[in-house]
Amino acid sequence: MASTSKAKLVVFALDILCTLLALVLISFGVYVLVSYNLNQVGALAAYGYVGLGVAALVVVLWGYLSAWRENVCCTVTVSHNHCKFSFVVLMLVSLQFIVFLCLVIIAQFAVVYLLFTQDKSVAANLAGTLDQTWEEELNSPGAMSLYQNWFQCCGRGSPQDYIVNERLPPATCFRDHDKSKPENLIHTGCRVEFENYWLHLTKIFNIIGFVLIGLELLLSIASCRLCNSIRNDARRSYF
Fold it and tell me: What is the model's pTM?
């Protein structure tokens, strides 16, 4: 019984950690989808993070139920009066569910691997929203101010973007907004800075995804050990 209580605590702790990380990934994906007008690749990446979080919650639910309810379907515990046929059915159902969880984790790993190996492509597509903002800047001066103040950059690719469009760089293209000194002009374009921002951000969330998968594997192992411990306790109670 003591070992069962310890196993429950481990499962609950892993459940909480996995749930928090899953919610972080879901929140990030939803934020990107809602806040930016993404192209197809950018939207797929955002949905990928949401999918990772939702899939993790499925694994967490299994661990939570096995620890809290000690459910027959979760723990594969069969009472003394059950017939062998029922035992076989429960074993098959449990094995099918375990296979399903394994497939979920494998799918998660595939998604994180793609996001990790294609991080530059993902960042470039997520940064594509700045191109739309630059088009707005040409029609409505000031649209780029947010990015230029945020990243200390100027124009889409450089200050030359303003000049070729017969406009002078705005005050946001100068350090401290001081246009009196030519050396204050910022020469870095916003497209590069915004892409680097997404590259750094996606790397962080990709690492979170890998950590989450690792915790899910630990949770699966801990849940199986808990199931075995509960089954053994039930068998001892018959004698």
Answer: 0.81
